[in-house]
């Protein structure tokens, strides 16, 4: 599997959870010790991810485009993305997202997630 396929597999699961407003499903895509930085203070692990996404408005959807990817080791892939979060009651929020996807056994999960606003 190439880096784009790895990232797409992980990010499609993330997107499905975000689009369904299913915080626990989103959190399941992250490692037990993941560093998560959305647009609020950072957290460690899936519980913080679930809490963050539970606080997001109903109807929020995520669309992403992979801009760059790198295979750092056999079990670690870097992704740099453009993400558009759309809402039912406000303008779309466009951000950049950097992630590290880590393979644990046969599953890839997000070990690091860092959002920055477009300037």
Automatic annotation (TrEMBL):
InterPro entries: NTF2-like_dom_sf. It comes from Kribbella ginsengisoli. This is SgcJ/EcaC family oxidoreductase. It comes from the Bacteria.
């Amino acid at each position: 599997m190439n880096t784009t396929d790895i990232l797409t597999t992980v990010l499609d699961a993330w997107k499905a959870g975000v689009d369904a407003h299913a915080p626990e499903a989103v959190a399941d895509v992250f490692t037990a010790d993941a560093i998560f930085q959305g647009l609020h203070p950072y957290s460690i692990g899936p519980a913080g991810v679930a809490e963050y996404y539970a606080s997001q408005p109903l109807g929020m959807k995520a669309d992403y485009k992979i801009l760059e990817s790198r295979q750092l080791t056999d079990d670690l892939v870097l992704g740099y993305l453009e993400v558009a979060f759309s809402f039912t009651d406000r303008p779309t929020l466009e951000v950049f997202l950097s992630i590290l996807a880590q393979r644990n056994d046969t599953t890839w999960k997000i070990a690091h997630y860092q959002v920055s606003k477009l300037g």
